[in-house]
Amino acid sequence: MMWNVVVKSVFLVLLLAYCIQLYFYNSTIDPHIEGNISDERFKLVYEVFRSNFIDGWEREGASLVVYQKGKKVVDIWGGYADKESGRLWQRDTLNIAFSCTKAVAGICIAKLVDQGLLNYDDPVEKHWPGFGKNGKENITVRWLLGHRAGLAYTDHKIHLHIANDSKAISRVFEEQRPNWPPGTEIGYHALTFGWLVDQLIRRVDPKGRSIGVYFKQDIADKYSIFSLLKFCDSCEYYSYIPSYVLVAECISNTLCIHPRTWLYGSPHCSKCA
């Protein structure tokens, strides 16, 4: 009998804690919008940004910068970088820019093309010996960049130790058969694009650098661009950390965690996009 009372008490305490957290997470308390609008014509942008928090469209934190003709006219941020600890979003809070990095990868390839180290119509096999196996011999650099390579997903499960091993990743794609006849269809290479371009750059770059190192040394540092293509421990405090509630909502929806959702998207899971 005593054990039942203890179990019920613990359950009620946990339920109450969860409800309090859920209330705090969905509350419309002052979103702490900071920054400035240097051009009054863009004042409505500030109001819409703020209303996104109040109306529940943005429940954690965000930032927005707008340039017009080279002049910064909007620079605002608000909400929480870590809602569970109450840490506010700051001007320099780091955030994940998902597929924007594909454009960065394209710039790296363009620079190598400009240097005469490869051409867009080169077969990938020319620079990556072993890649052309299993029906991939005709895949070109252009198809790779244009999501026409037919390598949108792999049959081989990629565990963390494989993801962190460049040679292991190379073998995965060398053995992979195309998901469809290369060059015939476009299919968004959401999760494979970075690995494929990285492997190509490692082989074409005379110094054998990864895409992250190549971009930092030859582009970002040269033009004073602050950008990280991988996470660093020293940046942890300045980064956005999704709350437990948001993550729980995402993984509770099977459409969000199914691999094909990342390839083709799902209108039911905008939180995960």
Automatic annotation (TrEMBL):
This is Beta-lactamase domain-containing protein. It comes from the Eukaryota. InterPro entries: Beta-lactam-related, Beta-lactam/transpept-like, Beta-lactamase/esterase. Pfam families: Beta-lactamase. The lineage of its organism: Eukaryota, Metazoa, Ecdysozoa, Nematoda, Chromadorea. Residues 49-222 form the Beta-lactamase-related domain.
